[in-house]
Specification:
Largest sheet: 4 strands, antiparallel
Number of helices: 14
Shape: elongated
Radius of gyration: 34 Å
Strand content: 5-15%
Number of strands: 7
Distance between the termini: 71 Å
Helix content: 40-55%
Strand order of the largest sheet: 1-2-7-6
Structural class: alpha+beta
């Protein structure tokens, strides 16, 4: 890939400094290429170097006129008008946009820029210098030679890089947190800028999480504690990392596929006494509940059904597994599901007359599952 193509790729990937360098290399090899100057002007514009972008745009206009190519003249002038706008030369920008309109009145974004410039002109007084047109149709600039381009490039390369701005630590009382989950993990983000990487302590326990670190620039120390967690985690498989903007903690679920409704639970953990678990015990232990399980809405004339009990019934009976491969597939699917998924399968299948099979208890547990017959068929009540 040549320098120009690398520049276009970097521009598309929003790597603007890299794009500037690639377009500069391309201009070295061909100082008369209009598109290279337009490309570099675009990259300069994205990093808010509007004076440099204007200089490239004006060179592009001159070169495009020398080639007498209407499309290139329009593109160069349009880029030029944008830089004039950013440099607050609104009358000049308006003047150049009129040139663009004459070249191609169907330019897609022309109305947007015309409106932006008109709004700015309305906001400034008549005597303001920004209302005076000083721009010419063709700028009085000369395209640089190859040696001039090389010298300018070396000047850019040898210029000292600006020192990165130091990260200002977030005050302890301003630190926030959020969390999200997948089927396998729960991720907690402590939104603290400048957390000292070597001083962040994260303690994982099966049923709890503890985070602490000193806040630089103050005597305060930040603490984040959850005990108990909504469900058990695997401390060994849980990890964390510290970035300039946050502390990211990833906890591995013991019961994969179980959806957490909150970070903190209300359950009794091993070795403690407290209130009853907020998570159904069969999810934590893998055992199905019995007659004490709650009843859920149903349209059955015989009353509410205990779906936990139905889900625990033995499916090895002949009338359940004998038949075609479809029955065997569903039996295999059922045997590999969690107790909660089994309960959802039983409820959705029975209430829908065999037309719906769901493993999402949170979706079907609190409502009656309506039959969804195949297209061209209809459900009948018996």
């Amino acid at each position: 890939m040549d320098a120009a193509r690398k520049g276009e790729a970097a521009l598309s990937a929003s790597n603007y400094d890299e794009a500037i360098q690639h377009f500069t290399d391309a201009i070295k090899s061909n100082p008369a290429a209009v598109k290279y100057y337009i490309g570099r002007a675009t990259a300069y514009q994205r990093v808010k170097k509007y004076a440099e972008a204007l200089a490239d745009s004006e060179i592009a206009v001159v070169l495009a006129h020398k080639r007498a190519t209407r499309e290139l003249i329009k593109d160069a002038q349009f880029r030029r008008a944008q830089q004039l706008y950013f440099l607050e030369r609104y009358a000049d920008a308006d003047y150049i946009l009129e040139i663009v309109k004459k070249l191609d009145e169907k330019e897609k974004t022309l109305p947007i820029w015309t409106s932006k410039v008109a709004k700015k002109l309305q906001e400034i007084p008549e005597e303001d210098e920004k209302r005076k047109v000083t721009a010419k149709d063709v700028p009085e600039v000369e395209a640089p030679s190859a040696s001039q381009v090389t010298a300018a490039a070396k000047k850019i390369e040898t210029a000292p890089a600006a020192a990165p701005k130091p990260v200002v630590p977030t005050p302890a009382n301003k630190i926030k947190d959020d969390w999200y989950q997948s089927n396998d993990t729960v991720t907690v983000n402590i939104l603290a800028k400048g957390a000292p990487k070597d001083s962040v302590t994260v303690d994982f326990d099966k049923d709890s999480l503890s985070v602490s670190f000193p806040v630089e620039g103050s005597a305060a120390e930040y603490h984040f504690d959850i005990d108990p967690l909504y469900a058990p985690i695997d401390p060994v498989a849980s990890t964390f990392r510290v970035t300039p903007n946050k502390v990211e903690i990833t906890m591995k679920k013991v019961s994969q596929g179980v959806k957490w409704k909150a970070l903190e639970g209300n359950r009794q953990v091993e070795g403690t006494e407290g209130s009853q678990s907020a998570i159904p015990q069969h999810i934590l232990t893998g055992k199905s509940v019995q007659d004490s399980a709650p009843a859920y809405p149903t349209s059955s004339k015989s009353g509410a059904k205990n779906w936990d009990k139905l889900a625990a019934e033995d499916l090895d009976e002949k009338d359940e597994i004998e038949g075609d491969e479809t029955n065997h597939f569903f039996k295999k699917l059922y045997s590999g599901a969690t107790p909660e998924q089994q309960r959802a399968m039983m409820k959705s299948y029975q209430e829908s007359g065999g037309t719906v099979l769901s493993t999402d208890w949170s979706n079907v547990g609190s409502k009656t599952v309506v039959p969804e017959p195949p297209e061209g068929m209809e459900a009948k009540k018996y």
